[in-house]
Amino acid sequence: MTAIIPLSELREKIDAIDRQILELINQRAECAMEVARTKIAEGETNTFYRPDRETLVLRRIKELNPGPLADETAVRFFRELMSACLALEKPLEVAFLGPKGTFTQQATFKHFGHAVNDIPVPTINDIFNTVENGHCQFGVVPVENSTEGVVAHTLDRFMTSPLQICGEVEIRVHQNLMGKMNDLSGITEVFSHQQSLAQCRQWLSSYLPGVECTAVSSNAEAARLAAQSNDKAAIAGAVAAELYDLKIIEKNIEDDSNNTTRFIIIGYQQPASTGHDKTSILVSTGNQPGALHKILGPLADHGISMTHIESRPSRQGLWDYVFFIDLNGHCDDDNVAKALNALKHNVHMLKVLGSYPKAVI
């Protein structure tokens, strides 16, 4: 029979381990500061954050983790540690779809950690403009939802933007009904972003039939409006309830329990290949027979797996479309490079939007 260790001994052991962890964390921070000094000495003043390097570190943590902590828990811890260390080198400024309390802010923290300077801006277009003008190094924008499909504003903006996709992050979206009231009775109006209203359509129809549903610019804005009234409610994430001091009346009211939103990181960096990457491209074929075959043929010939394709009006002519395509692999990979070279001879326009590491957490 295993002997029971006294609590006093266990607590002493934990205290000793905590001291060791703290020493090692600060040693890592000192190394990060040395990295910054070396980069400055070598003239690398714009590459303090390397998405490919950070992704490789986080993947290695998953591979090395022996448990009992779950891989996701270990990776989240190191994500925050790396974020804090990077802030000692040079704090990142990242634009997100505000105000504070949105899922886009949640995605920003999940990808960059909490040590970044997160800058809320009102629209997706403003995020692109903020990064293009150099006011922030990166931006985080939603690109697709598993229930409602693509975010058209994001895709359309890439038609004219010089920015690259530098990374991706996925957020499991849990929608909550919140307000100042204690229950559903007396609610006269529900505020939320139009996509969140759509994601909760069945629940609203079943539990709040006839109640007016009003679309606003963001879920955080919905929470702000609900906080100003005793009979208005909002649908938003749990963070918004904390920010605006609202009660969560009903949790997880989304119609699809697997509801997930994918966000992309935009900036001027071009991450190096990590071995587990995606490449996003924009293709214009013109209105011609067999247009889609001319796109898919070179990809199939070189064994490229296409993970997503979406068409959008090109705004250049009637029934003229552009295609947004996500591929497995990096543009520096031999087979991807050959496929893209063959593809550009089949289409009117080919724009590589970026090659970037697949999301780790």
TrEMBL record:
- Cite the EC number: 4.2.1.51, 5.4.99.5
Q: Where in the cell is it found?
A: Cytoplasm
Q: Name one GO biological process term.
A: chorismate metabolic process
Looking up InterPro entries in the UniProt record yields: ACT-like_dom_sf, ACT_dom, Chor_mutase/pphenate_deHydtase, Chorismate_II_sf, CM_dom_sf, CM_II_prokaryot, G/b/e-P-prot_chorismate_mutase, Preph_deHydtase
Domain Chorismate mutase stretches: 1-93
What keywords appear on the UniProt entry?
Answer: Amino-acid biosynthesis, Aromatic amino acid biosynthesis, Cytoplasm, Isomerase, Lyase, Multifunctional enzyme, Phenylalanine biosynthesis
Keyword match Cytoplasm: yes
Which residue numbers delimit the Prephenate dehydratase domain?
93-268
Reaction equation(s) it catalyzes = chorismate = prephenate; prephenate + H(+) = 3-phenylpyruvate + CO2 + H2O
The yes or no answer to whether the keyword Isomerase is present is: yes
Point out the annotated site residues (description: Essential for prephenate dehydratase activity).
Answer: T261
Q: Name one Pfam family in it.
A: PDT
Q: Which CDD domains match?
A: ACT_CM-PDT, PBP2_PDT_1
A single cellular component GO annotation = cytoplasm
Principal location class: cytoplasm
PANTHER family documented for this protein: PREPHENATE DEHYDRATASE P PROTEIN, PREPHENATE DEHYDRATASE-RELATED
Outline what the protein does. Answer: Catalyzes the Claisen rearrangement of chorismate to prephenate and the decarboxylation/dehydration of prephenate to phenylpyruvate.
The name on file for this protein is: Bifunctional chorismate mutase/prephenate dehydratase
What organism, scientifically named, is this protein from?
A: Methylomarinum roseum
Q: Which gene encodes it?
A: pheA
